[in-house]
Amino acid sequence: MHLIDNLQYANWSEKIFQQMQEGGVCAVHVTIAYHEMFRETVANVETWNRWFERFPELIFHGRTGDDVRRAKIEGRTAIFFGFQNPSPIEDDIGLVEIWHALGARFMQLTYNNQSLLATGCYEAEDPGVTRMGRQVIKEMNRVGLVVDMSHSAERSTLEAIEISERPIAITHANPAFWHPARRNKSDDVLRALGQSGGMLGFSMYPHHLKDKSDCTLASFCEMIARTADLMGVDNIGLGSDLCQDQPDSVVEWMRVGRWSKEMDYGEGSAGDAGFPPMPDWFEDNRHFGNIAAGLIAHGFSEADTAAVMGENWLRFYDENFGPANG
Predict the structure, then answer these.
(1) What is the residue-wise DSSP string for 148-213?
(2) For residues 143 and 134, is the Cβ–Cβ distance under 8 A?
(3) Residue 272 pLDDT greater than 60, yes or no
(4) Which tens digit of pLDDT belongs to each residue from 311-324?
(5) pLDDT tens, 296-309?
(6) Sequence spans of domains, the chain
(7) pLDDT mean over 107-133
(8) Does the CA dihedral 288-293-295-300 come out positive or negative?
(9) How far apart are CA 39 and CA 208, in angstroms?
(10) How many CB atoms lie within 10 A of CB 73?
(11) DSSP state of 278
């Protein structure tokens, strides 16, 4: 089984890289931009390059599905870059291809707010994908940069699925039928995502979970089963949204960036601006086995369990990380 976590934003360290290895994690999609512009994001790539140089026995930069297979064989973790906002392309469509060449493989069209491309889930009105958004989706499709709508509003998400000629991803969110967080997705979105061959990554971030930090593994696995019935077992995987070892100050950067002088509390309450505790069955990269065991206990076959734990993402990587014509 190729174990893939399709979203983390940890406070990276040798300890975490070792935990990935201990947990048998073959690949992780890491966030390298929230509100950073082009040059700032390049600096984040430089930081990752230094980690690749310092810890070559643990991690390396992944670009294709074959890198996941290589990581499995070598006992390492392939790191795939992604953006939670389109800010790294600024207002320049030509930077889409540049970023793909630099190793980016996922880009959200929005992060909570209205962007130049689409509408985020915290806006009162959702006019959908913008004129620039349509052009950027076309260019992303051409080069193999996956459209991610994890933080996007309903109409924008449905339009992105329709406009994109290649499957899109919702890398880290859960179904709204299970827990009505503003960022969790409706049945309509999930059906459209599955019918188009797109992927949903289930999040273990407590604000996305029923009962939050007290969510049980049984409840989480029941939710996965119901979602598989809704959109197909071949279209689901994991996107933990693990923010391990991050200081609470990072929440302010995630939610506020530079766009506001006031704290935007997002999915937490006004009295809970920091990171909530993770559920006890998933605290770090060593605990993915608990989820696999939970799926088996719920009645998933070994093949379907492997699909959810990473094989579906691996197929998606194979099909969507390269140019549209090859």
Answers:
(1) E-TTB-HHHHHHHHHH-SS--EE-S--BTTT---TTSB-HHHHHHHHHTT-EEEEP--GGGSTTGG
(2) no
(3) no
(4) 999 999 999 999 98
(5) 999 999 999 999 99
(6) 3-320
(7) 97
(8) positive
(9) 32
(10) 8
(11) P
Long-range (24+ apart) CB contacts under 8 A made by 212-215 are 212/276, 213/276, 213/277, 213/278, 213/279, 214/279, 215/279
For residue 293, the model assigns a pLDDT of: 98
DSSP letter for each residue of 114-152: --SS--BTTSS----S-HHHHHHHHHHHHHTPEEE-TTB
Which CATH architecture group holds 3-320? Alpha-Beta Barrel (3.20)
Under 8 Å between Cβ of 71 and 25: no
- Give SS3 for 260: coil
CB burial readout 74-102, b (16+ within 10 A) else e: eebbbbbbbbbbbbbbeeeeebbbebbeb
pLDDT of residue 269: 43
Residue 271 has pLDDT above 50, yes or no: no
| Residue 157 tokens, joined | 């998400």
Mean pLDDT across 180-197: 97
Q: In this structure, what token pair is assigned to residue 33? A: 């931009």
Per-residue confidence band for 326, with pLDDT thresholds at 50, 70 and 90: low
Pairing of strands 25-33, 3-8: parallel
Distance CA 77, CA 59 (A): 5
Cα 201 to Cα 308: distance, rounded to the nearest angstrom: 9
